[in-house]
Design a protein that fits this description.
Layout: E1 9-16, E2 26-31, H1 34-45, E3 49-54, E4 71-82, E5 89-105, E6 112-117, H2 127-147, H3 154-160, H4 165-175, H5 180-188, H6 192-243, H7 247-262, H8 267-281, H9 288-302, H10 315-325, H11 330-345, E7 353-357, H12 364-375, E8 379-383, H13 391-394, H14 407-415, E9 421-425, H15 438-445, E10 454-455, E11 462-463, E12 469-474, H16 482-486, E13 489-492, H17 498-516, E14 524-526, H18 528-537, H19 545-563, E15 570-572, H20 577-581, E16 599-606, E17 609-621, E18 626-629, H21 634-649, H22 651-654, H23 660-663, E19 664-669, H24 683-695, E20 703-705, E21 708-709, E22 715-716, H25 721-730, E23 735-739, H26 751-756, E24 758-762, H27 765-772, H28 788-792
Parallel strand pairs: 1-3, 7-12, 7-13, 8-9, 9-12, 14-15, 16-20, 18-19, 20-23, 23-24
Antiparallel strand pairs: 1-6, 2-5, 3-4, 4-5, 5-6, 10-11, 16-17, 17-19, 21-22
Length: about 800
């Protein structure tokens, strides 16, 4: 008999998933979780003793104390073997005695528990009843072993060798194929004969199930005999149809049948197709329903069931391909490299889902195509812009004339692979009407827990999309339904800086357009100054799409001149661009060199990047009217009113007439009135302009600011800081006031921008006033002193 310690003892705890162990039994299993491996190592270093307890839910990867059954087995570690790679440890343990975890501690590097032994308790029944219970249980187990083909008779010999009822109950419970829940109930029962009673009931159930399984197997054998009879009848039918002149249809039917039987699909789907084929064989020649059935079967046979492409696991090769095709975009590249690394370690991993969100022209669709090349997956692209019919995703019922499968199934057929990279372009531009909502239909397609049994309305049989790598693109997440957005991993692709655009033009755009227009490198040269002028004076965008068109225009001019013999080569200089591209389309905004009263430089984030947005305030004698102009949205108007209220509450402190809201008219104007404006980030800009106009103190001309204001004067964080700072630099600003909570966003700002700008983090309007007004700037804290190392490190585009 196993001995046990009578007092409580603290020892490592190893939670089991889907396994149970009983006292006196041996168990071999694999350990993968880092916390479990640490518990094993801790036990090995001590006395080889460890406490094993089953998890209540095997799917929980990091169990808490409530996720573990308190009753388990104290074991001795007999053997452990590390698998190659170091991630899995094969372990052999021997159960010593049953115990209960008085307390479980999940903190620390491994789980530990204070364990209290649970000895068996005597059964209060007479000896004859004990003998009857024991014999009945052993008889049922003997019958169970004989009926179970994967069990051997030697297991009965081990059982009869030891008459102890505790050992017999533990041995049967450990050996039989019961559910983990039932095994846990047996382990928690302390009376041996009550355990044997429970085992008898469970063995009876298992014997009944095995009996039914054998009956089903016999029925399957009988069905096979029937299929042979059907084969003979079909041969006779062929002869009859040949006499009737319909032998061509018979050949087609048999060809279809052979193809269906060769498909790598589930039996349920195969039976469905064979049933439709049987209906086709009974249709008269030339019938309309026969044409529908034939079209349905043809589409089903066109789907590449079970056909996949071998993904690359060469991470360096994939990185090289991604770098060749695109400059920057490090977040996307890092995510793909991580996926390939996981694929290398776990080949059975299914497809992925990422959503690339960014302004137009930033390379979302093209990087998706590069991902397909880098991962060696087939590519299929589906444009969702303007799609407003659910049937475009799920397909039409095949009963309708002209019905066809949805775009998802068509994409799989086009790719000729069940694991392609599927690009769902412009997912933010889906529409909906009385014909349904395609965004709702995409919920099943993009859910990794559901898409393994996706059913197209046309196919009516399940299709596995779990191996597809989905890449969706969008310009904004605001129009994507929340349920759909929740299923996607969002990767933001931010605007390019002018320096990044220059590098992209030199590395990719100019060589691409030269090749497209048949020009050699020595026939067309464009210097850096010319490219920078094209970027600044002929484009205004976040991406490089318009820049590529302007470079293509220069290439056309060069090709026309060379073809007409006007010159042999063209060297493009910045002072000659107007001859090639015409007058400059965009003029750089000139920064006023004088400090002004009531004029503050704000920063705005638009679809083409960041820009400087001035706020002008004029105060005149009146009756307390407030005028807001500049095509403002509701949020921006509310922000301006909040700024006025804040100033009223601090009027005396700020040196402003406390009755200004009664005897002054205030006009707040945002220039470029034709452009709609909205958002709360101009709050501190508006407030600073109002204080300047009411106090007569000038605002520094080289300072720009962004931040939301509250009624108490707190400055709240804002978005789009990276683009806004680029707009400030282009406008000639040298100091930018930002909310203190946005310090963390400075790491994502381009190194070139950070090196040329000084950032002042503020948390209240008092700090903004101190930094922005021209006559009191000495107390501001410049963040260049806070992040000296960050400015020295090169920053790549995230």
């Amino acid at each position: 008999m196993n001995t046990f310690i009578s007092e409580d003892i603290n020892m490592p705890l190893l939670p089991l998933r889907g396994l149970n162990l009983f006292p006196g039994m041996m168990l071999s299993f694999d350990i993968e979780r880092r916390q479990s491996i640490t518990a094993l190592e801790s036990a090995v270093k001590a006395d080889q003793i460890i406490f094993l307890a089953a998890q209540k839910d095997a799917s929980v990867d990091a169990p808490e104390a409530d996720d573990i059954w308190p009753v388990g087995v104290v074991c001795r570690i007999r053997q452990q073997l590390r698998q190659p790679g170091g991630g899995v440890c094969r372990t052999l343990v021997e159960g010593l005695y049953r115990a209960e975890a008085v307390s479980i501690n999940v903190e620390g590097r491994c789980i530990t528990a204070v364990v209290r032994p649970l000895p068996d308790v005597p059964d209060r029944i007479n000896a004859d009843r004990k003998e009857a219970i024991l014999r009945n249980c052993m008889s049922l187990f003997q019958e169970y072993v004989h009926m179970n083909t994967d069990m051997v008779n030697e297991q009965l010999i081990n059982l009869f060798a030891n008459p102890d009822p505790a050992f017999i109950s533990h041995y049967i419970a450990h050996t039989a194929h019961f559910s983990p829940e039932n095994k846990q109930k047996l382990l928690m029962e302390l009376a041996p004969y009550r355990r044997l009673n429970m085992l008898s009931k469970l063995l009876n159930t298992e014997i009944n199930v095995i009996t039914i399984e054998k009956e089903l197997s016999q029925e399957a054998q009988e069905a096979l005999s029937r299929s042979q009879r059907e084969y003979l009848l079909r041969e006779e039918m062929k002869i009859i149809q040949s006499e009737l002149g319909e032998d061509g249809l018979v050949d087609d039917i048999e060809e279809y049948r052979a193809k269906i039987n060769a498909l790598a699909i589930e039996e349920e789907s195969r039976e469905k197709l064979l049933k439709e084929l049987s209906r086709l064989s009974k249709q008269p020649f030339g019938s309309s329903e026969g044409a529908v059935l034939r079209g349905y079967i043809d589409v089903c046979l066109d789907i590449p069931w079970g056909q996949t492409t071998q993904e690359t696991v060469d991470i360096e090769k994939a990185r090289k391909i991604l770098d060749e095709d695109h400059f920057g975009l490090e977040k996307v590249k890092k995510r793909i490299i991580e996926y390939l690394a996981v694929k290398q370690l776990s080949p059975d991993i299914k497809g992925g889902l990422i959503c690339l969100v960014g302004p137009p022209g930033t390379g979302k669709t093209s990087i998706a195509m590069s991902i397909a090349r880098a991962t060696n997956r087939k590519l299929c692209r589906i444009s969702l812009g303007g799609v407003h019919d659910e049937a475009e995703i799920r397909g039409h019922r095949k009963t309708y004339i002209g019905s066809m499968p949805g775009r998802i199934v068509n994409g799989i057929i086009q790719a000729k692979s069940t694991n392609p990279l599927m690009v769902l372009d412009e997912i933010d531009k889906l529409a909906s009407d009385f014909r349904g909502d395609p965004a709702s239909a995409l919920l099943e397609v993009l859910d990794g827990e559901q898409n393994s049994t996706f059913r197209d309305n046309f196919l009516e049989i399940p299709m596995d999309l779990s191996s597809v790598f989905f890449v969706t693109t969008a310009n904004t997440t605001e129009t994507i339904p929340p349920a759909l957005l929740d299923r996607m991993e969002i990767i933001e692709m931010q605007s390019y800086t002018d320096e990044e655009k220059l590098r992209i033009a030199k590395r990719h755009l100019i060589p691409k357009q030269r090749k497209k227009h048949g020009l050699k490198a020595n026939q067309l040269r464009i210097d850096d100054a010319s490219v920078m002028k094209i970027i600044g004076s002929y484009t205004r965008e976040s991406g490089v799409r318009v820049l590529e068109r302007q470079i293509a225009s220069v290439c056309r001019k060069a090709a026309a001149g060379i073809a007409q013999g006007e010159f042999r080569c063209l060297n493009v200089k910045s002072d000659k661009l107007e001859e090639l591209l015409g007058p400059e389309k965009y003029k750089r905004e000139k920064l006023n060199v004088n400090d002004e009263v009531g004029v503050v430089h704000g920063l705005a984030y638009t679809s083409v990047g960041g820009e400087m947005l001035d706020v002008e305030v004029s105060v005149v004698e009146g009756s307390g009217k407030i005028e807001l102009t500049g095509n403002l949205g509701d949020v921006m108007k509310e922000s301006a009113r909040a700024a006025v209220t804040y100033i009223r509450s601090r009027a005396i402190t700020l040196g402003i007439d406390g009755e200004f809201y009664k005897n002054k008219d205030i006009h707040i104007h945002y220039p470029e009135g034709a452009v709609p404006k909205d958002g709360p980030s101009a709050g501190i800009t508006t407030c600073t302009a109002l204080i300047s106009a009411l106090t007569g103190r000038a605002v520094r001309h080289d300072v720009a600011m962004t931040g939301e204001i509250t009624l108490r004067g707190r400055v709240l964080p804002i978005g789009g800081l990276r683009e806004k700072t680029m707009g400030a630099l282009r406008a000639g600003i040298r100091t930018v006031i930002i909310p203190a909570d946005n310090r963390i966003d400075l790491e994502e700002i381009d190194q070139t921008v950070r090196s040329k700008l000084s950032f002042i983090p503020v948390s209240s309007m008092d700090e903004v006033i101190s930094a922005a007004l021209a006559d009191n700037t000495q107390s501001s804290t410049v963040i260049n002193q806070i992040l000296p190392k960050a400015a020295e490190q090169p920053t790549v585009r995230q």
